[in-house]
Amino acid sequence: MKKIIIAATAILGFASASFAQSNASGTASQTVQLALSNALEITFTGNGSATGGTVTIPFTTVNDYANGVESGAQEIKVRSNKNFGVTVKTSTAYFSVTNAGVTTTSTMPASVLGIEVSANATGGSIASGFSASAYNSLSATAANLITNATYGGNQTFSVKYKATPGFAYPAGTYATDVVYTATQQ
Question: The pTM is what?
Answer without folding.
Answer: 0.84
